[in-house]
TrEMBL record:
Pfam families reported in the protein's UniProt record: Acyl_transf_3
Organism ancestry: Bacteria, Bacillati, Actinomycetota, Actinomycetes, Kitasatosporales
Organism: Streptomyces xinghaiensis
Alphabetical keyword list: Membrane, Transmembrane, Transmembrane helix
Annotated TM spans: 54-72, 84-105, 117-136, 148-166, 231-249, 269-295, 302-321, 333-356
Name listed for the protein in its UniProt record: Acyltransferase 3 domain-containing protein
Record GO terms (molecular function): acyltransferase activity, transferring groups other than amino-acyl groups
Amino acid sequence: MTNVLRPHGHQRTPLPPESRASPLTPSRDAAAPQPGGSPTPPGGNSAVKKRDPFFDNAKYLAIVLVAIGHAWQPLTADSRIAEALYIFVYAFHMPAFIVISGYFSRSFDMRTDRLQRLITGVAVPYIVFETAYSYFKRYADDDPGYPISLLDPWYLTWFLIALFIWRLTTPLWKIVRWPVPLALSVAVLASVSPDIGDDLDLQRVLQFLPFFVVGLVLKPEHFQLVRRREVRILSVPVFAAALLFAYWVTPRMATSWFYHRDSVQELTAPWWTGLVMTPALFGCSMVLVACFYAWVPRREMWFTALGAGTLYGYLLHGFLAKGSRFWDWYDAGWLHTVWGAVALTVLAAAVVTVLCSRPVQRVFRFVMEPKMEWAFRRDAAELARGRAEKKAPAPTAGDGGTAARG
């Protein structure tokens, strides 16, 4: 169900310290100033600072892995190789996405404009797509009784409600002394608590929480570290070992462990298993996330601009992913061959690429990034500045001349 400039040598341009954008933030943020961008020009006007291509590349590649994982899922029932690849991808694609979410949430506080953006950029898309997905399931799956509930996220919308909750708790994680161990402890407790229930998909919210908190505590130099040549070289045997382990573990371990949506009791394991498996899965995922980041291109690529539209690709491809099951597209025998799996992989990557493109963004921008000025009161400080500007006398020619001479 869950479901993502490079000079030679070690002298590399440092990553920007932070940005206020979300990893799922649409193209409206593409022109937003970011620390580490272009300097102010001599004329004194601030230049529009450029987005860092590394993060856009990482977001695009992560969302492609999400779509590919969804395309592979129906193949896992009769192919051990497909299931191994599926487990391998699911071990790190959402954690990689969530770590970037945390990194770009470091500046979040309860300031009015940031709360407004949290509502328009996360809460509103959640409400719209949770409703749209519910109606889609009713009619596409011939399930007219399926309830529409904003408290029970269905399919992909869990990430939006999780991001909303994580962002609201950001000030807490910024003041505690050991945020990552504390978040991991919360995840462990959640994994052994079967009574949490399905409201707001809190199991997944809490079990994925440590990855978000890791992003909050990361600094630019940490991303610089994984871009070192030796880390890239080391990541190759690590990925290979992870693939072999995934192949070995497929008959022995349910893929549901990697969804993080159930307690260990619901996975028919003894309660104490959560004390071991949750930290172990977290550690394995973080190693694979580091290996993934090590191979993300640092320079501008043909797909870099698509990283600004990952919210579109993430939410829209879900209709096709679920529709393919509802309409029995996988009943075609050729899809369960090697060439069929390759074709599905290419098709999934191509579809989500199109859904991240600018034309699609223009069509769905009213849903993904509504302005909604009408819904918010103007900030008191902003109103005060406006009144002060109206009361200030207009400068005279003599004043201008005096200022120029001064």
